[in-house]
C-alpha cells in the first residue's frame, strides 16, 4: 500500500493567520453540503455500499482534518488571537454542522440502502465495511429522525447549544491563570533546579503557578503546609464560578437530550456505543470495584496520617487534601530509601525520548526520525517520521512537551490526520499525523528538563496513544487509530505504562543527566519495589472520580456537583474538601469523557490482562510486540474491541491480572 509523504508545505497550516482561520468555517460547511447533496440525489434502487455508506464516510475526508487542525491551534498556538479565533471558528462549525448533518434525507438514504442492496452486498463485503454500516446506521438513528418535527428541531437546538458550552468549558480551564508567591523560607524542600525555573515578583518572591510543572513538585516537596494549602485551594478553583454555571447547563441539556431520544439517562445514551452498553453496568462495575479497594485505600491514607502525626509531633494531626502528595513522598523516602527528586536526575527528557524510541522500535519493528526544515506552531514543537526498517514512511507525529501561556494544560494526544485508504478499493493510503501535548518542566540554560518517574509513565502512556494513531492500517478513518469504544481507548496506552516498571526498559529510559551513569542497582530495586506505593489510594481516587461522573449523568435530579464530590471523597476516602472549592469547574473530563471516566478503570482490566503475554514471553519480545501491533494498534476500531483482545491473547480476557495488580484479588 502506497503511503503519502509530507513536505514542509503540508504544514503551512501551522502558520495560519486570523484571516486564514476565519475563512475556513464557510468553506468547510459549503463543501460538506455539496458532498451530501450528491449522495441524496441517488435513486433508492441504485444505492450501493460504495455510493452511499462509503460516500458518507468520505464526505468528511479532508474536512475533519482541517477542523482538527483548527482545534489543535486553539490548544497550542502561542498567539492569543489565533487561539481565540480558532475557538470561535470551532464553535461556528460545530453549531452549523449539526444542521448540515441532521438531514432526514441522509437518514432516508441509509434506510433505503438497508432494505435494498445491503441484503445482498453484506454477503461479500469485508467485515470492516459491514461494521462501518452498522455503526453509521446506529449513529444516524441516534439523531432522532423518527421524532416529530418540532422535537427534532428542539433536539438540534439542544445539540448546538451543548457544542458551544462544551467548547466554552474547555476554554475556561485553559485560560484560567492564578498563582501564589513564596519567600525563600517558604520554598524549603524545593530543589534549586525547580526554583531556578520560576519567575519572581518585584519583592523577589517566587511565583508558583497552577501549571503542572509548578504545581505537582510544590505539593510533593514544599515543607510549608500553609503554602501547600494556599496553592491547592487555588488549584481547586480552576475554571472558576463561570464554569460551574456552564456545567450546570450542560448537565441539564444532556439529560433532556437523552430523554428526547428515549434513553433513561445521558449515561445510557453515551454507553450504548461502548463496551459497558449501559450506565447501570458502568456504575455497577465501579461500585463493585470500590468495595474491593476502599478499605485498602483508606489504609494507605491512614499510614500518611500516622506519618504526619510523627513528623509534626501532634498525635491528633489531621491529614488534609493538601498533605497527601507531601506525606506520600516522605513515606516513599522512608520505606523505599529514595525520593522523587533523586530519581528525577536519571530521567532527562532526551534520554526518555531516546529510550522510548528504542523500545518501540524493537517491539513494533519501526524507526523514528526527527525531521528538520519543518516549521510548526512553536519552536518547542518537533516533527518526526515513523518509518519501516527499509526507510519507507508510515506516518508522522509531533511532540510539544513544555508549558507556555494559554496552552492546553494537561497531557494528551491529538489525532489530526487519520490513516485511511484514499479510495474505496484503492491502494493508496493517507499517512496519519498526531501530536503529543504535555507540560513537563521546560529546560533552562543551566538545567535540562528532568522527569519524575510518574511523568515517565505519563510519557509512555501518551506516546502509546500516538502509536495507536500512527501505526493504524484501518481502511476507514472513522475506524483508524484510537477510534475504538471510548471505554477501551485507554487500554493500549495503559498497557504500555508497564514499561516504566521493568529493568530492561528502564535501562533504556534512564541515565544520569550529568554523568550518563545508569540507575544504581539499589536505587533501581527500591524504585521497582515502590510500584504499589499508595496504589490502593490511587485506584480509590480514580473510582471516586468515575462514580462522581456517572452519578451526575445517571440521576434524574443529580446533587449539586461540588457537594456531590465533597461527599464522595469524605465518605470513601475520609478526606474533607473545602466548601468553597470548585473542583468540577476544572475537571476537564466532564467534557468529552462525560459519563465515561469509569473507562480508565474499565480499560485497565484489559490492559493488565494484555500485559500478561509480555510478562510471560518477555517485555522486549519482538514476537509479542508484532502481535500487539497487528491485533491492537493496526486494527483500531475496525472490529469489536473484545475481539481485538481475544485475538491478541488467544483466549477470553480475564480480570485476574488487574485485581492482583491493585491488591484486590480476594
UniProtKB/TrEMBL annotation:
One of its GO terms (biological process) is proteolysis. The keyword Signal does not apply. This is Peptidase M3A/M3B catalytic domain-containing protein. Keywords: Hydrolase, Metal-binding, Metalloprotease, Protease, Zinc. Its cofactor is Zn(2+). Binds 1 zinc ion. GO terms for molecular function: metal ion binding; metalloendopeptidase activity. The lineage of its organism: Bacteria, Candidatus Yonathiibacteriota. Residues 219-663 form the Peptidase M3A/M3B catalytic domain. The keyword DNA repair does not apply. Transmembrane segments: none annotated. Pfam families: Peptidase_M3. Belongs to the peptidase M3 family. InterPro entries: MetalloPept_cat_dom_sf, Neurolysin/TOP_dom2, Neurolysin/TOP_N, Pept_M3A_M3B, Pept_M3A_M3B_dom.
Amino acid at each position: 500500500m502506497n503511503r503519502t509523504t509530507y513536505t514542509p508545505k503540508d504544514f503551512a497550516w501551522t502558520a495560519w493567520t486570523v484571516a486564514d482561520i476565519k475563512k475556513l468555517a464557510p468553506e468547510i460547511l459549503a463543501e460538506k453540503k455539496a458532498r451530501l447533496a450528491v449522495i441524496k440525489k441517488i435513486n433508492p434502487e441504485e444505492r450501493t455500499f460504495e455510493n452511499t455508506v462509503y460516500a458518507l464516510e468520505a464526505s468528511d475526508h479532508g474536512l475533519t482534518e482541517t477542523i482538527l487542525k483548527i482545534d489543535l491551534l486553539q490548544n497550542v498556538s502561542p498567539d492569543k488571537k489565533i487561539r481565540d479565533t480558532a475557538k470561535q471558528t470551532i464553535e461556528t462549525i460545530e453549531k452549523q454542522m449539526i444542521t448540515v448533518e441532521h438531514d432526514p434525507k441522509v437518514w432516508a438514504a441509509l434506510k433505503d440502502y438497508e432494505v435494498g442492496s445491503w441484503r445482498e452486498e453484506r454477503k461479500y463485503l469485508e467485515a470492516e465495511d459491514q461494521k462501518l454500516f452498522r455503526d453509521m446506521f446506529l449513529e444516524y438513528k441516534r439523531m432522532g429522525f423518527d421524532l416529530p418535527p418540532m422535537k427534532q428541531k428542539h433536539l438540534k437546538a439542544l445539540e448546538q447549544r451543548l457544542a458551544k458550552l462544551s467548547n466554552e468549558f474547555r476554554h475556561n480551564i485553559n485560560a484560567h491563570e492564578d498563582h501564589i508567591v513564596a519567600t525563600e523560607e517558604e520554598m524549603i524542600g524545593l530543589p534549586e533546579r525547580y526554583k531556578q525555573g520560576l519567575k519572581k515578583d518585584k519583592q523577589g518572591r517566587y511565583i508558583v503557578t497552577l501549571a503542572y510543572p509548578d504545581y505537582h513538585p510544590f505539593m510533593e516537596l514544599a515543607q510549608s503546609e500553609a503554602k501547600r494549602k494556599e496553592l491547592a485551594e487555588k488549584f481547586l478553583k480552576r475554571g472558576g464560578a463561570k464554569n460551574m454555571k456552564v456545567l450546570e447547563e450542560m448537565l441539564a441539556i444532556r439529560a433532556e437530550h437523552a430523554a428526547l431520544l428515549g434513553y433513561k439517562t445521558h449515561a445510557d445514551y453515551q454507553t450504548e456505543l461502548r463496551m459497558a452498553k449501559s450506565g447501570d453496568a458502568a456504575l455497577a462495575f465501579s461500585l463493585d470495584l470500590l468495595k474491593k479497594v476502599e478499605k485498602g485505600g483508606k489504609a494507605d491514607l491512614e499510614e500518611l496520617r500516622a506519618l504526619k502525626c510523627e513528623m509534626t509531633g501532634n498525635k491528633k494531626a489531621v491529614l488534609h487534601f493538601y498533605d497527601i502528595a507531601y506525606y506520600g513522598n516522605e513515606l516513599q523516602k522512608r520505606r523505599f530509601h529514595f525520593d522523587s527528586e533523586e530519581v528525577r536526575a536519571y530521567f532527562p527528557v532526551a534520554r526518555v525520548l531516546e529510550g522510548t524510541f528504542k523500545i518501540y522500535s524493537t517491539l513494533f519493528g519501526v524507526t523514528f526520525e526527527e525531521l528538520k526544515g519543518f516549521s510548526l506552531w512553536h519552536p518547542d514543537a518537533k516533527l518526526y517520521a515513523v518509518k519501516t526498517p527499509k526507510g519507507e514512511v508510515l506516518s508522522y507525529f509531533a511532540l510539544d512537551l513544555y508549558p507556555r501561556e494559554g496552552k492546553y494544560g494537561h497531557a494528551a494526544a491529538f489525532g489530526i490526520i487519520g490513516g485511511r485508504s484514499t479510495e474505496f478499493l484503492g491502494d493508496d493510503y493517507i499517512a496519519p499525523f498526531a501530536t503529543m501535548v504535555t507540560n513537563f518542566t521546560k529546560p533552562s540554560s543551566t538545567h535540562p528538563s528532568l522527569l519524575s518517574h510518574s511523568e515517565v509513565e505519563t510519557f509512555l502512556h501518551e506516546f502509546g496513544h500516538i502509536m495507536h494513531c500512527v501505526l493504524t492500517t484501518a481502511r476507514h478513518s472513522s475506524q483508524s487509530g484510537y477510534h475504538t469504544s471510548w471505554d477501551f481507548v485507554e487500554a493500549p496506552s495503559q498497557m504500555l505504562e508497564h514499561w516504566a516498571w521493568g529493568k530492561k526498559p528502564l535501562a533504556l529510559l534512564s541515565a544520569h543527566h550529568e554523568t550518563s551513569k545508569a540507575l544504581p542497582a539499589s536505587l533501581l530495586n527500591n524504585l521497582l519495589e515502590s510500584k504499589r506505593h499508595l496504589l490502593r489510594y490511587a485506584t480509590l481516587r480514580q473510582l471516586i472520580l468515575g462514580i462522581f461522573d456517572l452519578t451526575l449523568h445517571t440521576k434524574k435530579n443529580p446533587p449539586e456537583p461540588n457537594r456531590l464530590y465533597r461527599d464522595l471523597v469524605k465518605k470513601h476516602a475520609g478526606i474533607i474538601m473545602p466548601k468553597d472549592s470548585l473542583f468540577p469547574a476544572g475537571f476537564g473530563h466532564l467534557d468529552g469523557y462525560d459519563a465515561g471516566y469509569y473507562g480508565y478503570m474499565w480499560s485497565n482490566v484489559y490492559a493488565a490482562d494484555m500485559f500478561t503475554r509480555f510478562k510471560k514471553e518477555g517485555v522486549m519480545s519482538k514476537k509479542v510486540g508484532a502481535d500487539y501491533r497487528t491485533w491492537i494498534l493496526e486494527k483500531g476500531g475496525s472490529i469489536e474491541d473484545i475481539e481485538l483482545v481475544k485475538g491478541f491473547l488467544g483466549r477470553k480476557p480475564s480480570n485476574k491480572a488487574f485485581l492482583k495488580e491493585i491488591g484486590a484479588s480476594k
